[in-house]
Design a protein that fits this description.
Number of helices: 11
Mean pLDDT: 90
Strand content: 15-25%
Order of helices and strands: HEHEHEHEEHEHEHEHEEHHEH
Shape: globular
Distance between the termini: 89 Å
Low-confidence stretches: 10-15, 17-31
Length: 330
């Protein structure tokens, strides 16, 4: 005959059994170490631009470092706002991130009368990734080889030249509008849904010029399919030291872009720190760093807090510039 347990002892046995069984239950997702599943990184532009280039360079090293696949999703449109809005409305669990840039996180505020998200309130800043060096190029069919020659040609042919941009509100849009305002020239804006489509038309001659990222343009300059006139940074490039700056012809002219990683508002600080550290380590790898530098992308890094402060300051800065040159979304 088995022993008949008293009420107290029976309750104790049940408690022990429950604890033993619980030990074999799977942990809740929230308690598992991050990351425990693939991470989706939204690039809010089509393939072929500087943001997409950066994402592809760091994709595999980050996959190896984090132990989970890094899935890149190109979701272009509205100067990066369609992809950015999708991330802003995603769960803040660290598995949907935005590789944003100067347009989607700053310039658009001063360009568009209404945005579907607030770049400060609706995102968690994670890390400023790279600064993006820009270059002024023309289709080689245009009979100019210097900035002064381009200005003279534009003045002699008002309304006949066109420049391409990665979309209304992108830095190429503002940079070219600043060029027009500074030189008092009439050059037509042709916006595209990203840097890739713009480059295609520039190669074909549908547009004749642009000021855009080196990563997107310099490979075509190397093959002779585009002609570089100058860089738009305040100093000459260490990679292309023979190229003058636009400022050497137009004192004070500067247009430099940037990129950075954010997630939806409300992300857990430990998850933010984990992602920040992984990106910083990957960007410091010698081979990754060299690939970025060769494409005109200067690794930056820094804390989430510093990136948040930077975004806020950039919104103020570029809103003033957009107003001064009269740039509005078309």
């Amino acid at each position: 005959m088995g022993e008949i347990l008293g009420p107290k002892r029976f309750a104790a046995v049940l408690t022990c059994a429950a604890i033993f069984a619980a030990a074999f239950l799977p942990l809740p997702v929230a308690a598992q170490a991050y990351p425990s599943k693939p991470i989706r990184v939204v690039v809010p532009f089509p393939p072929g631009g500087a943001v997409d280039f950066f994402a592809r360079v760091v994709q595999m090293p980050l996959t190896e470092m984090l132990g989970q696949p890094l899935i890149i999703e190109n979701k272009g449109g509205a100067s990066g706002m369609i992809g950015a809005d999708a991330v802003a409305k995603s769960p803040p669990d660290g598995y949907t991130l935005l590789l944003g840039n100067i347009a989607s996180l700053a310039i658009n505020v001063g360009i568009y009368p209404k945005m579907p998200y607030d770049p400060v309130k609706d995102f968690t800043p994670i890390i400023r990734t790279v600064d993006v060096n820009y270059v002024l190029v023309v289709n080689p069919s245009l009979p100019v080889k210097t900035v002064p020659e381009l200005i003279a040609y534009a003045k002699a042919h008002p309304g006949q030249l066109s420049y391409g941009s990665a979309g209304s509100g992108s830095l190429p849009h503002l940079a070219d509008e600043l060029f027009k305002a500074t030189t008092a020239t009439d050059i037509v804006h042709v916006p595209y849904k990203g840097g890739g489509p713009m480059v295609t038309d520039l190669l074909g001659g549908s547009v004749q010029m642009t000021i855009a990222d080196q990563a997107n343009l310099m490979p075509h300059v190397a093959t002779g399919k585009m002609r570089a006139l100058a860089v738009s940074s305040p100093r000459r490039s260490t990679v292309y030291p023979d190229l003058p700056t636009i400022a050497e012809s137009l004192p004070g002219f500067e247009a430099t872009a940037w990129q950075g990683l954010v997630g939806p508002a409300g992300m857990a600080p430990d998850v933010v720190r984990r992602i920040n550290e992984a990106f910083a380590k990957v960007m410091a790898m010698p081979d990754v760093r060299q690939r970025l530098l060769s494409a005109g992308l200067d690794p930056v890094g820094g804390s989430p807090e510093a990136f948040g402060d930077f975004i806020a300051a950039e919104i103020v800065k570029w809103s003033k510039i957009a107003k001064s040159v009269g740039a509005r979304a078309e």
